[in-house]
Design a protein that fits this description.
heterodimer, A: mainly alpha, two-stranded antiparallel ribbon, 2 strands, 54% helix, B: alpha+beta, Creatine Kinase, Chain A, domain 2, 2 domains, 8-stranded antiparallel beta sheet, 12 helices, 10 strands, 44% helix
């Protein structure tokens, strides 16, 4: 009988006891360790250290892209003078202004990771609907007002004017 | 410091707390016009701490928080903070000025100068997404009323790592899924069930082993979804996980009752007889007991008693309890005694 024995990725000596698997949309990563290395790496508490490992996956995700980007690596942030090159080593930006300084490159990364490049808030969703109807209201009121003036229906025009004023001041 | 107290979230007897152990929300926030910690000069890092301390002194809510300067507490106490999930392991590896606010009941904490200026987190026992969100928003507001956060209309809250930008919010659910692990359907299950931007991490034990039954489900995407959308997506997954785990437990008991009873009572027997209990073996036994408790085979032990051991049986906690430095073997010996004591079990001679 042939046994297929897996060897620990860390020490490459002992037999694997634990398979750690991370699954996300579009990727699956496996780490195979022996119990000794598991303890050594401080991975014996499944609660805590896994968040650390996620961090590494993200960094790999960013650094994957380094090849073929030589030009943008020479960029430097106008706000904090961090060179863009450093971002590929650490996966971290230097200051809020880096988002503007490196926008062209960052947008691609944001799109690939988040599938989006635009922040959406709960309040922006709530706001957007009434705002849209307000805009159509204003347009409608303006044309109504014009036709009311043409028809010399000044009572109606005054009422429409007041409503318009109210809407525009809101 | 802490070692004799139990964090409040571990005492939860919430419905399904045997499946969803805890809900954690974390917000990443940075102060406006100060460089991010990894690139900031020491002067700026000190400013962050000064501003945060000012926010605390002006707020009644934050008065319930103790402040610790990480550089001035002992190594063992730092590791205890990690074992209690109050700070991240990465936080201890940084060598610049860092501090942490910790709520007295340990439900919430705020890391200062980790990857971002503020990492605000709160943990609730069981599945409690709305409670956690309300609590963390209040906490965020306490800081925001004094200091302006770095925010852009386009990208939302700006964070040091672009993978957190937008809401800056990460929600994690810690799930205990023994029956799904035993029926070996987990990998496929998660692949089917996870919508884009969610990830599962955990130990996948081999075959019939129960050592790897605790999983963390969390959102990875923070940009392009609102906070409530992220919350709803996790709530949806949580319900599905609970349902499938319960279904798997029923099936196991219908088809393999003797084998499951064997696993649970064997675990009880090992704990009663053990003189030496390594961490990993302990997790496996604990998982079996939690399953036994959930299905009513174990009466005298409560779920909070078992959840508490997840924290108190970690190496630093054991050393701290006996106030001495120990070898790994010593820790395993003391762990065997501690587990029996905490569960009120008699030792087999």
């Amino acid at each position: 009988m042939v046994y297929n024995i897996m060897i620990c990725e860390n020490c490459k000596i002992r037999q694997v006891s634990v398979h750690i698997t991370q699954i996300g949309q579009g990727y699956k990563k496996e780490i195979n360790l022996c119990l000794f290395c598991l303890n050594e790496k401080g991975l014996n508490s499944s609660f805590v250290y896994l968040s650390d490992m996620l961090g590494n996956v993200i960094k790999e995700f960013i650094t994957m892209d380094k090849a073929g980007r030589k030009k943008s690596l020479e960029l430097v942030c106008g706000g904090c003078s961090m060179p863009f090159d450093r971002f590929f080593e650490t996966g971290l930006l230097g200051c809020p202004e880096c988002y503007d300084s490196f926008e062209f490159e960052l947008k691609k990364i944001l799109h690939r990771f988040h599938g989006s490049t635009k922040h959406i808030t709960d309040s922006s969703i709530r706001m957007s609907k009434p705002q849209l109807s307000e805009i159509t209201d204003v347009k409608k009121l303006q044309t109504d007002l014009q036709s009311a003036v043409k028809e010399e229906n000044f009572e109606k025009a005054a009422e429409l004017r007041d409503r318009l004023k109210l809407l525009l001041n809101m | 410091m802490f070692a004799d107290k139990i964090p409040k979230w571990l005492e939860s007897e919430a419905k399904n707390a045997d499946i969803i152990i805890s809900t954690r929300i974390r917000l990443a926030r940075n102060f406006d016009s100060i460089p991010f910690p990894n690139w900031a000069p020491h002067k700026s890092l000190r400013k962050v701490i000064r501003l945060a301390l000012k926010a605390r002194s002006d707020s009644t809510m934050l008065k319930e928080f103790d402040y610790f300067n990480i550089n001035s507490i002992s190594n063992i106490n730092r590791k205890i903070l990690v074992e209690r999930h109050l700070v991240s392991p990465a936080f201890l590896n940084l060598d610049h000025g860092r501090g942490v606010f910790i709520e007295k009941n340990e439900e919430s904490s705020v890391m200062l100068n980790e990857e971002d200026h503020l990492r605000i987190q709160t943990i609730c026992g069981g599945l409690a997404l709305t409670t956690a969100l309300i609590r963390i928003r209040k906490l965020e507001e306490e800081f925001n009323s004094i200091i302006r956060f770095s925010y852009s209309k386009k990208y939302g809250y700006l964070t040091s790592c672009p993978t957190n930008v937008g809401t800056g919010m990460r929600i994690s659910l810690f799930c205990h899924l023994p029956a799904l692990t035993l029926t070996e359907r987990l990998g496929g299950l998660f692949n089917d069930m996870l919508p884009a931007g969610m990830a599962v991490r955990g130990f996948f034990g081999e075959g019939s082993d129960l050592s790897g039954t605790i999983f963390q489900i969390s959102n990875q995407i923070t940009l392009g979804f609102t906070e409530n959308e992220i919350l709803d997506r996790l709530r949806f997954i949580a319900r599905k996980v609970v349902y499938r785990e319960k279904q798997a437990r029923e099936q196991l008991f219908k088809n393999q009752r003797i084998l499951i009873e064997d696993k649970i009572f064997r675990a009880l027997g090992i704990i009663q007889g053990a003189r030496h209990l390594p961490m990993f073996e302990f997790y496996s036994l604990l998982s079996a007991l939690k399953l036994g408790k959930a299905v009513g085979l174990i009466q005298k032990i409560s779920t909070p008693m078992l959840n508490k051991l997840i924290v108190t049986c970690q190496p630093m906690h054991i050393q701290r309890l006996h106030s001495k430095k120990m070898s790994r073997q010593d820790i395993d010996i003391y762990r065997a005694r501690l587990v029996r004591k905490e569960l009120n079990l008699k030792r087999i001679n």
